[in-house]
Amino acid sequence: MQNLIDYSEKRYYSLDYYLKKIYGEKLYKISLNGGMTCPNRDGTVGNGGCIFCSAGGSGDFAASPSKSIAKQIADGKNLVARKYTGHSYIAYFQAYTNTYAPFEYLEKIFTEAIMEPEIKILSIATRPDCLNEEIIALLARLNQIKPVWIELGLQTIHEKSAAFIRRGYPLPVFENSVSKLRAVGIDIIVHVILYLPDETEEMMLETISYLNHMDIQGIKLQLLHVLENTDLAVYYEKHHFHLPTLDEYVVLLSRCISILRPDIVIHRLTGDGPKDILIEPKWTGNKRLVLNTIQKYLKSRDIRQGKEYLDV
Ligand code: SF4
C-alpha cells in the first residue's frame, strides 16, 4: 500500500497535504475557547490535572472565553490576515476539555462555530470519558453540516505511564469512545506524547502499533514538554529524567513515521508549547529547525510513512 501513496514532497501524510487535496488550499486553525474546565482538574476525576498540563489547560494559544465565539473567530482571522489570503478555517476548541459542559451550552457554541461560512471544519479536543450518548448524537448531527473532528488525548497505551501522568482513565474507555464516534462517522485524531519518563523506545513504538489497529484518521505526535508551574516541572527539578536531544528525537520519530499506517494523517510532529514557559527541551522552541531536521533525515534515509508498517 505504501508505494502507491504520494505524499508530495514530504515523506509523510501531512495535514497540509490532506487539506490541499480535499479543499484545494491550506486551511488555518483558529483556536477557540469555550471557557470549559476539565474533570481531571475540578475533582470529578482528579484535582491536579495531567502532570504536564499548564495553567492554560493545554490550550495556551486559545482566545479569551469572555468573547463570543463569533468574535473569537473574527479575531483569529485578523491574527493570520497578514500571512493568509485564503478564506477557509478550522474552528479548533483547544483549551481544557471541550465537551465538559451542559449539553445546551455545547450545542450553542459548536453550532455558532460551524455555521460561520468560512469555517470548513470543526475540531474539538476532549477526553474520551467526556463523550456521552447525547453529546455523540450532537456531534453526529453537526457532522452532517460540516466535518467534525474529535481530538483525544491518549498520550500512551501503557497504564504505568498513564498513571504517572495522571491521565485519569483506562485504555478501554478510549477504545469505547473510538467505536462510538466511528459508528457515527466522526474522524478521530489521537494525541501521543513521546519520551514520557521511563518509556523505552519499544514502548513508544508499541503505542504507534496499537493505534495502527484502531479506526483513527489522524495523529498528533509530540515530545513531552516541561512547562513552568506544572507538577512535571517540580518532578523534573528533582529527578532530571531523560529528555532527548534533537537528533535523538528525530531518529525515534522517524521510526514512528516508518511504522505508522500510511493513511493516518499526521497533524503534528513536534510540540507547540509556549516558549515563554518552556523549561525543557529548549530546542523544541525552534520549530522551523526541528521540522527541517526531520525532513532532511527522512529524505537522507529514504524513510517514508508506512514503509515498515506491515513488518511490525
Ligand atoms: S485532560 Fe487535558 S485539560 Fe485536563 S488536565 Fe489533562 S491535559 Fe489538562
What is the secondary structure topology, with strand pairs?
Elements: H1 15-23, E1 28-32, H2 69-80, E2 89-93, H3 103-114, E3 119-126, H4 133-145, E4 148-155, H5 159-165, H6 171-183, E5 187-194, H7 201-212, E6 218-223, E7 226-227, H8 231-239, H9 246-259, E8 265-268, E9 278-280, H10 287-300
Parallel strand pairs: 1-2, 2-3, 3-4, 4-5, 5-6, 6-8
Antiparallel strand pairs: 7-9
Helix pairs in contact: 3-4, 7-9, 9-10
Keywords:
312 residues; alpha/beta; seven-stranded parallel sheet; 10 helices; 9 strands; binds iron/sulfur cluster
What does this structure look like?
- The protein has 312 residues and is α/β, with parallel strands linked by helices.
- Helix content is 37%, strand content 16%.
- The protein contains 10 helices and 9 strands.
- The strands form 2 sheets. The chain has a 7-stranded parallel β-sheet with strand order 1-2-3-4-5-6-8.
- The radius of gyration is 19 Å and the shape is globular.
- The two termini are 15 Å apart.
- The site of iron/sulfur cluster has 12 residues, from loops.
- What strand order characterises the main sheet? 1-2-3-4-5-6-8
Which hetero ligands occur in this complex?
Answer: iron/sulfur cluster
Sheet of most strands = 7 strands, parallel
Describe the global form. globular
